[in-house]
Each structure stands twice: as structure tokens, then as C-alpha cells.
Amino acid sequence: MRKGIFSLFFILISLSLSASSILIPMDADSQKNHLKAYGITYWVLAKQQKVQWLLNYRGGSFLLPDGESIRKECQIRGVSFEVVSDNQANAILDEISSPSKNQDAVILEKAPKIAVYSPQGNQPWDDAVTMVLTYAEIPYVTIYDEEVLSDKLALYDWLHLHHEDFTGQYGKFYGAYRATPWYIDGKKEAEKLAKKLGYDKVSEQKGAVAQKIRNYVIGGGFMFAMCSATDSFDIALAADGVDICEPMFDGDASDPNYQASLDFRKTFAFTDFTLERNPMKYEFSSIDMTTKRGNVPRESDYFSLMDFSAKWDVVPTMLCQNHTSLVKGFMGQTTAFNRPQIKPTVLVLGENKLNGEARYIHGIKGKGFFTFYGGHDPEDYQHRVGDPKTELELHPTSPGYRLILNNVLFPAARKKKQKT
């Protein structure tokens, strides 16, 4: 009897000593595929297992439950990992919890349902978010105006706005591309869809879509936008009920002095901006800094991520996790944001100090959150219409693409109230 008790005791001790976790390091030296590491984390969450995101610890590492299937999946996807004992894991967590460390551990609880707002058919450009979701093997659903206007957004936790124009001016491509087949066909398809959905103009339909997305965020949704979807969204909100489109876009004249009719109280991020009236100019407003970057040479075009308190400002810290604080810049129709026209309630997460511009911003609207990221493709400096897509197999450690994936995991986190 006594021998049996001692045997059971030693078995339990052995099991305790062998218990372990999987650490996915995210620093520059240890991780060979940062982007697919997010996919592994999402995959574990999708299996109803919790993950700890170790903020500011080795580049924002992930602590996963151990299991043979997880180890094999990391090996298959080429993700670097380390097996650590429970004692080692607890020591890491104790170190992170120290008041002297600007670190924190955030529990990720569920895999968010992801929607990408994007039209059907091939566009003459690619979308960084859909490319990195596909590369990281994170599933998503593509939706567009019909789904948004029929209140399908409530089915999703996270929404990405594809390279889009919510003002009804067809991306301001008129000056350079009005005679190209893709522009002509796209305009016809947009007008056809607007009529089908009961709108006289594409601008009216896009405005209604912007309002639905606005309500989705206010109700608790997470919205992420890049390039022209950032400023054109806010312009559409400010111009609610105001015709800002010239005849080549909607068949009639714009409202006289429409600039004075804009209501900046309705926008998410930007205020006091001036619209670009010239239909031949590839620009929406004074929000964008693309044409004001004469003193930013390509070789020194970088933006720095802001340093937040991990224990006090958990949300912005999550969104800035990276293996470097300096990220290579990249262009887009909307490259960066004019800082004086960003509302004071909006956080700047990344900035180019050389040009006084914000590249990466975040805010709260109602119960939800939004993040705007300037530029089109983090690994294609000046992506042009018709250029081939970026092959992410060549950029598995891209810091610029990591910022997108930080936002993808953001809704999975057990939220702590922000202190500042």
C-alpha cells in the first residue's frame, strides 16, 4: 500500500516536471517566419485553446499550450519555436509582471471572424491585407456592398477595408485611366450595382455603406483600413448629404461651396481638411501627405513606432508589437496623414518625424475600434496600377506586414481598460 502511494507520488512529480508550453519567439534573431507565426497563433485559437501574447518580450512572443500537433504545425509552416517547461514559462511570466519591466502578458481567447470588404473580380492592383492573411493561412470572408447594406457586418469581429473610394469618385483615377478598359468597366459595374441596390448615384450608395460601417464600429466592431480607404471613408462621413462629385463621376454638378458644408463632427480620425476639387488630380484632400514628401528620399524613408506603457496602455502596445521600432516606409494613393488634421482623441502609433507625418493611427468610436495604416504595400515601395503582386515568401519577417497582423489578433484579446 505504502509502496503504491510512493509510486503514484513519483509519477505525479514526473508529470509535473515534464509539463511544458511552446514559446514562439518574435525577435529578429530567433524567428525565421514572423508572418506565419501569427497564423499558428490563430490556428491554436481556432481550436478553442488560449494563447498568451507576451508584449515587449522578445519582439512580442506568443506562449502556447504544448502539444504534438502544434509542434508539427510549426514545423510544417516553418515557424521557429521553443519548448519550455512550466517552471520556465512561469519564470518568464514572473519577469514580465515585474513593475520594472515595460512588458505585459495578454490572454488571447478566441479566433476572430474576419471579413474583407472588396469587390468581386480582378482589380489592377493587389491588397496587402488579403495577401498576408493568405500567406499566414488565416481564413477570411470577402464581402461587399450588398452584404454591408443588408446588415451582414454583425457576423464578423474584424473588418478590413480594401483599397477603396467611399466618395463615389472612382478612386480619382479619372485623370490618368479614364480611357482604360478596367476603369470603364469598373464604372459601369459600380453604377449597375447602385441601381440594383436602389440608389441613383454610386456616391449615394457608397455613403450609405460608410454609414453602415460607422455603425458597425460604434456597436463594438474592429475596423482596419489602408491606403485610400482611410481618408475617403472619413470624407464620405463628413460629406453625408453633400454632393462633392463633379459631372464626370455622377452626371451632375457638385454642390456650390461644398467645402463649407462638411461636418467634421461625423468623422473618425480627421478634421479641418480641404477637399481636392480638381477631378484630374489623383488626390482626395489635404489629409494625405503624398505630394508633400519632397524632403523624404527613398533610402531614408522610415517611420518609427511609438513606445507605450505595456501595463497601462495595452491596446496601442499590442498594435505596435514588432522586432524593430523602425519600419521601412512605402507609398500609396494615401501614403501618410497630415498630423495637424488628426483629431486629438486619435493615437499616433507610427510617425515619420522627418516629414511631420503620421503613418499608423488608432482610435475608439463608441464601443469599437479603428486603425488606419497609410500606404499600399509594405514591401513594394511605390506599387503602381498593374504591377505584379508581392511574393511574401520573399519577406517572411516583414515588420510592415507584422503591423497588419497585430490588428488581426487584436479582437482576440481579453481587454483591459486603457489607463491613458
UniProtKB/TrEMBL annotation:
Report the superkingdom from the record: Bacteria
According to the record, the signal peptide region is 1-19
Alphabetical UniProt keywords: Signal
The protein's name: Asparagine synthetase B
From which organism does this entry originate? Maribacter chungangensis
Q: What is the lineage of its organism?
A: Bacteria, Pseudomonadati, Bacteroidota, Flavobacteriia, Flavobacteriales
